[in-house]
Design brief:
The protein has 590 residues and is of the alpha+beta class. The protein has 13 helices and 17 strands. The two termini are 77 Å apart.
Length: 590
């Protein structure tokens, strides 16, 4: 019996990429630690003990000879720290000559290899003298500050700063040549790395657990947000959004931890301490700038929020008045049940537009050029792309305030006919007698002829009309009587007001008669049934009296009249239907 080993289960490609990326991220601090430890050790190995002066550097402009005048500001540096900047001449020495002299003095102090260095300041006739172990390094002059009118206080502050920088640089210079201190710093960095890696791993585990819990909770809440059984939010899209937010937070915290650890690790070694201090200062300045900006913008933001709160309060305070107007309790002539809703929308739009205009100057960043440019771009896009939308909204307001249509009325707009079910700002919906719902743009309705069958001069209900063509050999009085008889037999046709017959055209071969009646009720379904029953009664009455309807067009008199005798009103399959039991006029609406 041969056993078949199941094929190895391969992990999905994205999962492998995630694991590889996470492994590289965890390996990055290790590589940085090795680099940090290698730099100072390599520098110590390459620097002879007898020549510690290599740490003293002077910054001179490129292309300037050592004896020539400096075109830039010479600077004296030690261990990567700036000590002095030379801008003035003294005793016939140019700034570059003063810098070279200070460099030589400092180099001589370092070559003495004293067990410790003591930096002091002493007043001098032309400024403040900077000394190391009693040996003059250089003199800081008021003209070296680069100020228009320097004071004694400015000179003392700058001299104290130079003393502090030189003291730290000398201490770091000694530390850079001490194997014991470098080894201790390396141990501190390795120990911190041992804490950082588990912390990063724990952060990854927490992000995964948080992602699982948030996705589960978001999915449960999304299933509750339903309208008519339709979920408003897609579970897949919601899960992608939650996953993106959690990953961004995880990446931000990871970068913050590594950034802070890197700055701390750089500060442990004298060769890279300046870099670590710069990293820490950059993060501190960035966060401080954000906090200061938020604190300075907070009062103006509170004013903007107060404006929006007042706008909300005012728009809400007007709701009871407009609700009474919609119910018919308030009628001011220009404001009634039909115009209350659009008037409330216009009032809200005006209030919030005014609130946005008033709060705009108080929004954070509103005075910046980027914010102004974005506002202009949005306004340009709205003016170019929303012209049709504005036209539709204007047409909707015209229909509402002219009271052309009302909800529940039966109308005919162009070739479309039905009951108005919704009168919106941009479109109007009507439902036909066959159950179809039509959405018509308001601009189309405003530019078309509208027939309103629900607004008649007498009684309730709606007007209903139909047209027949009868030849000239039939007396018009008989035709009128037959049409009125058909209307009287039709259920749903009101007799008050009485049906009326109009002769609308005298064509070449026939007369066109139009029957106008009042029907009840106003729903679209029964109206279609009433019209169908009226047509059926007209056919039955004309067949009963032997009068043929001249449609299609009349070409000649046939040998026999084109009528259906009562004996043939119920042929198969109508023989077994309800029509065989009673005339059409006795049927009732379903």
């Amino acid at each position: 019996m041969t056993r078949t080993c199941p094929p190895a289960r391969l992990r999905p490609f994205p999962t492998l990429l995630d694991r590889l990326a996470h492994g590289l991220l965890l390996l990055l601090p290790v590589l940085l630690t090795v680099l940090l430890m290698a730099l100072p050790l390599a520098g110590l190995a390459q620097t002879p003990a007898a020549a510690p002066s290599s740490a003293v550097t002077a910054t001179l402009p490129a292309g300037v000879p050592a004896s020539g005048p400096a075109l830039a500001e010479p600077r004296l540096q030690l261990a990567g720290r700036e000590i002095l900047v030379f801008r003035a001449s003294s005793l016939g020495l140019s700034p570059a000559d003063r810098q070279r002299r200070a460099q030589a003095q400092l180099q001589g102090v370092l070559e003495a290899q004293a067990p410790e260095y003591q930096v002091t300041l002493r007043p001098a006739p032309d400024g403040r003298a900077l000394l190391v172990n009693g040996q003059l390094i250089s003199t800081l002059m008021p003209a070296d500050l680069g100020l228009d009118a320097p004071t004694e206080q400015d000179l003392d502050q700058r001299a104290q700063h130079a003393k502090t920088q030189l003291q730290r640089a000398l201490a770091e210079h000694q530390e850079a040549h001490s194997w014991q201190r470098l080894g201790l710093s390396a141990l501190w960095v390795l120990g911190s790395l041992g804490l950082l890696l588990p912390l990063l791993w724990a952060l990854r585990r927490v992000s995964r657990i948080s992602l699982r819990l948030l996705a589960r909770g978001a999915g449960a809440q999304a299933r509750k947000l339903q309208v008519s059984g339709v979920t408003l939010l897609s579970l897949d899209r919601l899960g992608d959004g939650v996953r993106l937010v959690v990953r961004l937070l995880h990446a931000g915290l990871w970068l913050l931890l590594v950034y802070e650890w890197l700055g701390w690790a750089l500060r442990q070694f004298p060769y890279t301490r300046v870099w670590g201090e710069q990293l820490h200062a950059a993060l501190r300045d960035a966060l401080g700038g954000v906090l200061i900006g938020a604190a300075s913008a907070l009062p103006q933001l509170l004013v903007a929020v107060l404006i929006f709160v007042l706008a909300h309060f005012l728009s809400t305070a007007l709701d009871p008045f407009f609700e009474r107007a919609e119910s018919g309790a308030v009628d001011l002539g220009w404001l009634d049940a039909d115009t209350a809703r659009p008037t409330r929308r216009l009032m809200r739009l005006g209030i919030w537009t005014f609130a946005v205009a008033m709060a705009y100057p108080y929004l954070p960043g509103a005075q910046t050029e980027a914010f102004k440019g974005l506002s202009v771009l949005i306004g340009l896009m709205a003016s170019l792309g929303a012209s049709s939308v504005v036209g539709q909204a204007a047409a909707g307001l015209i229909l509402m305030y002219t009271r052309t249509l009302r909800i529940g009325e039966y109308v005919r707009i162009g070739e479309h006919e039905g009951t108005v079910t919704e009168l919106g700002t941009f479109a109007t919906r009507i439902r036909t007698g066959q159950g179809d719902e039509l959405t018509l743009p308001n601009a189309l309705i405003a530019g078309s002829v509208t027939r309103n069958y629900s607004r008649t001069g007498g009684g309730a209900g709606f007007a209903l009309d139909t047209t027949v063509t009868i030849g000239y050999d039939t007396a018009w009085r008989q035709v009128e009587a037959m049409l009125k008889l058909a209307a009287a037999r039709t259920p749903g046709i009101l007799q008050d007001p009485a049906p009326r017959v109009f002769q609308t055209a005298l064509s070449d071969f026939y007369v066109e008669y139009r029957l106008v009646v009042q029907a009840q009720p106003t729903e679209p379904g029964p109206r279609a049934q009433v019209l169908s029953l009226l047509h059926a009664e007209i056919q039955d009455v004309f067949n009963e009296f032997g009068v043929q309807i001249m449609s299609p067009h009349y070409l000649g008199d046939p040998d026999a009249a084109k009528v259906v005798p009562p004996a043939h009103w119920h042929p198969e399959p109508a023989q077994g239907g309800p029509a065989a039991q009673a005339p059409a006029g006795e049927q009732r609406l379903a």
